[in-house]
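Title: Request for sanity check on Glycoside hydrolase family 25 protein prediction

Description:
We are preparing a figure and want to confirm that the structure record we downloaded matches what your pipeline produces today. Could someone re-run it with the sequence below and paste the raw structure tokens into this thread? We only need the token string, no images.
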Amino acid sequence: MSQPLYPRRPQRRAKKSRRLLLLALAAVFLVSTAVTIFVAYHAHHSIIKNALGLRNIQVDHVLLQTGSPFYTYEDSGKNIIASPGIDVSTFQGEIDWQAVKESGAEFAIIRAAYRGYETGRLVPDDTFEKNIQGAADAGLQVGVYLYSQALNEAEAEEEADYLLDLIRDYPVGYPVVYDQEEYSAGQTRTDGLSGEQATLNAFAFCRRIYKAGYLPMIYVNTDWAHNMYDMEKLDHYPVWYADYTASPSLPGGFAMWQYTDEGRISGIEGPVDLNLLFLPAE
């Protein structure tokens, strides 16, 4: 019996091999595309490099200990431990910083300046120099904040430059914070500010601070986190979150938590804000 000139079995094998090759190439392309998208997303959304190792975390409420005067928090599984601290301004009056240190505070975020609600003038806090020097001399780590009334990015950058000039001779190793929030006690120059513009302002301020070699941070409360700021556009900066409930939660996480504005500690007459800063455990 004569044999066919072109056997069918090898032809089927060739077609099968080509299909497998095309599938393999398609798989390589999909994996490569996924990796590229992940790297691009990670580069945009990962938190900026910082000497403190801060990152925005989700707090495990089970690990939160609500002691007095300071809360404590430690997550050995994620290598996180919280450092207790305060934030102050002229409203706290005369402060005995050594007593504050002995009460258990490890850091202080000090108001350095603010922009006038109506005039728009940038003004240093009356007690800034005394507070930052006193806190540093007592052995606390110090950071600063500026209360903003910026209408646009140019004003936010002006605020950053003003703040940088104020702190250049002080040992500021902790966050330099942008604080813009609603003032409900009366009319202000920022009434009607859009969430989009507020986000651009915060970004402009932080970019300026980071370029100068400091660690920028953005202060947000629940209202601004959900109704004003586009948090996804700001999520590569550490967030200082004000939430006075027992179970603070923010979709993108936070690096510092202000858990009360009615704290009581030695060295300060009257109420003071208390905070936890989430640091890598050594």
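Thanks, this matches our download. The CA atoms of residues 116 and 190 lie 10 Å apart.
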